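Side project, low priority. Logging it here so it doesn't get lost.
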Amino acid sequence: MYFPDNTQILGDPAYPLESWLLVAYKDNGHLSAQQRRYNTKLSMTCSVIERAVAFLKGRFRRLKTLDMNRTDLIPKTVMACCTLHNFCLQVERADSLDDFIQEGHEDAGVSQVTECSDQTRSAIVKRNRICSGF
């Protein structure tokens, strides 16, 4: 298992809820205040992540064409880009960084994944437990 019970990744609503992948509650008009707060915090966090990924894709165009069959190289390539990015931040002006973010968003064709109808009980319990902390 890649993600032990106390860890998870965040996903947008296009993905199914899994014990290791947290997504927003479906807004059917009957969400509790706590569930709406959870969705808001999840959305805000995902926005930060999306902005960071768009920035890296704009700065390091190699990330747009990673060979997804070489899963052994993907983490190394991303980490190398993050390291180079941190070095660049030490010498660049902050106002020039928005250009990279815009370029990274231009190619962001996110494929939609249909929601699974058989969401696991453990994933629902885990999301509810995290939501109750808000």
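Brief comment: The first strand starts at residue 9 and ends at 10.
Revisit when time allows.
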